[in-house]
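Students often ask why we bother predicting the structure of a whole assembly rather than each chain alone. The short answer is interfaces. A chain on its own may look different once its partners are present, and contacts between molecules only exist in the joint model. In this exercise we take two input lines together and write out one structure for the complete complex. Read the inputs first and try to guess which parts will touch.
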Amino acid sequence: MTTNELTRGPVLPAPASGSRTRPSRKRRPGTSRVTSLRALVWVLPAVLMLAVFVYLPLAQNFGFSVLEWDIYTGSQSFIGAENYQKMFADPVFWHALANNAWYSVISILFQVCGALVLAALVEGLRHDRWKQVFRVLYFIPSAISLTVAGLLFYFIYEPELGLLNAALESLGLGDLTQSWLGQENTAIFAIIAMSQWQGFGYCTLLFAVALQRIPSELYEAASIDGVGPVRRFFSVSLPLVREMTGLMMIVTVSGAFQVFNEVMVMTTGGPNNSSQVLGTWLYRSGFVRNDFGYAAAIATAIFFITLSLALLQLWISRKRRVEW
Amino acid sequence: MVKRSTALGVIGSTFVWAFLLALAVVVIYPLLWMTLNGFKTNAELFGNPFALPLELRWENYANAWNRGVGNYLMVSVLVTVTSTIATVFIGAWAAYGLTRIKIPFSRTFLIIILAGLMLAPTVALIPLVRMFQALGLYNTFWALLILYTAFRIPFTVFLIRAYMMDLPVQIDEAAAVDGASRARAFWQIILPMCKPIIVSTVILNILFTWNEYLFAMVFTSGGDFQTLPVGLTNLMAKHGTDYPVVFAGMVMAALPMVVLFIAGQRYFIRGLADGIGK
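Now the answer. The structure tokens for the assembled complex follow.
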């Protein structure tokens, strides 16, 4: 529908001047206003999609969070900050927040620090073929969905047919066998463990790319100076991927506060809300307990947490433009 | 290169190899277990979990397919293909405008688009549900197409724009001299030149859409139109006792993405690396 208008394009003299990156001072009266307005055709589809389906709902969420709202009867009434007061007094909310925090800490340990060491080990191998084999192998769990990975580990943790208990028994550790997802004190950690298995290869791949970008002269210089592999990691590799590490930490933590899929698939937050995270508690509050105003308040909490992390990320990536 | 062939070095590299291989087993074995379980009977499954299937029961796959996986797969393909095409075209179109054409308030538009990268989809969830109910799009294909496209535009523009900025301006000037319109220059010259980054974005978008769960579950779980992630959890709930069929379904959901990743890894890695910052 828009193609007709677009193939005509701007009239002749305009393209040459318009294609410069710097705006030219001279304006042709009349035509330039029309062409520049017509140029909006380029960005409008993207901007409108975002405005209507991303920014508008985001703004509406703040409005909803001050309502008492039953979606089935349609009744809405303004209750001010009550949903937020309820949230701060809600033990499940704090428990869910703590679970998200555990998620972040454990993911930083394994998916950032662990993956960095792993990437250095893989990149330290002598044969390119093997480097590639390991990078690809480790990534495969990240290519399958969290739903499939979650279901798979649901079965692995299953007390009767699961791999984990069977493996523990065959190692003579039968005392440790338990219903991993069925107990309040192990459920969330079993889920987090699955998520490390699923996600570490993704981070390893990114670190491997970052390590490859380090100029090889630096390594050669280090090895002429007789520096061993461990010291080389700490004094050459680590400082040069420091910013990447910072970014990965923030992306990982931000992801940890948006967890939803694997918890939903593996426990739906149970038993007894012990593995609830902010995302699943939001879902349950809104769609199961029909308290949409309260769900919107939880969404606001997620918004401020993820936004502050994103701003931190922006600030770090600004700084790192000067590197190399 | 100076090689350290001391005893310490040999021990060290043996440990490294042992560790890397052990980790490879930890990654591969569960996946292999999943695949093998898809060929077992329920009785075998509840027997020795380490045992191999007595015979390859392909009928589990046929059963899974007939009990809905075939349908979910079609829906996933449809949603993935359409939303990827929509995202990449809208994204590349905007990226071209932002890098090559003088647009009023272009800086503002750029910020509006890229700031979308920072927003968590969960935050918009509740209002979106109400919006799509009001539009009558709840439980339809359109809900997923629109949401996946809108939420993936920022990342897509981010990647393609960075690539287009590195293309020399002279190309556009030459096109203009030859009398090509802006739109023609985009379709016939700039877009083909962006092929590597387009392939990267396509792969990343396919992977995202195929595996997405939050929107798929909230917006389609009530109807007949479901993608694989939601469909699999349904298969589990409906046929929960027939586990081998569930495993077969999981394999069918996972396999296309594993193949896609291995086939397109070069583009894939490039997209990921550029995505997190150059």
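Check your guess against this: The mean pLDDT of chain B is 88.
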